[in-house]
Amino acid sequence: MAFKLILALAVVGVAQAAFLPTLVKKVELEAPAEYQFSYSVHDEHTGDVKSQQEERHGDDVKGQYTLVDADGYRRVVDYTADEHNGFNAVVRREPLSGHKVVKSVVPVAHYVAPVAKVALPVAKYAVPVTKVLAPAHVATVSFSAPSLTYHY
């Protein structure tokens, strides 16, 4: 009886839960996103030369970054992004005058296989002396047909 009561209350609870009001709160942005940043690195010792600058007004982003490649060219990337066109980038390669191209020298590695001299031991075995003698007597073997016998 208690099971039927619990089952009935559960069914009523599930039926009433479908009609509960829900509160939906829409959050609106106070102001469109605005930022502007830039940085640059110029390290003559390592040859690391790069920079970036970017600015955003609402959903429109514009920026540029540059870097010096190892082959002596400057790579310049101008990019824009907005809701209508998505991300677009224009890449240029500009030769640099007076830029030293750093050549990395890889040391030549020679492989020398190890030489292992192994002296195999010389095994000397004494050959056993065997003498074959004739048997003292020859045994004769005889067979007879089997016979069935019963003992009571």
From TrEMBL:
Single annotated GO MF: structural constituent of cuticle
Protein's name according to its UniProt entry: Uncharacterized protein
InterPro entries reported for this sequence: CHIT_BIND_RR_consensus, Insect_cuticle, Insect_Cuticle_Struc_Prot
PANTHER family per UniProt: CUTICULAR PROTEIN 30B-RELATED, STRUCTURAL CONTITUENT OF CUTICLE
Keyword list, A-Z: Cuticle, Signal
GO CC terms: extracellular matrix; extracellular space
Organism expressing this protein natively: Anopheles atroparvus (European mosquito)
Signal peptide (UniProt feature, chain positions): 1-17
Domain of life: Eukaryota
PROSITE patterns the UniProt entry points to: CHIT_BIND_RR_1, CHIT_BIND_RR_2
Keyword NADP assigned: no
Claim: Transit peptide is one of the keywords in the record: no
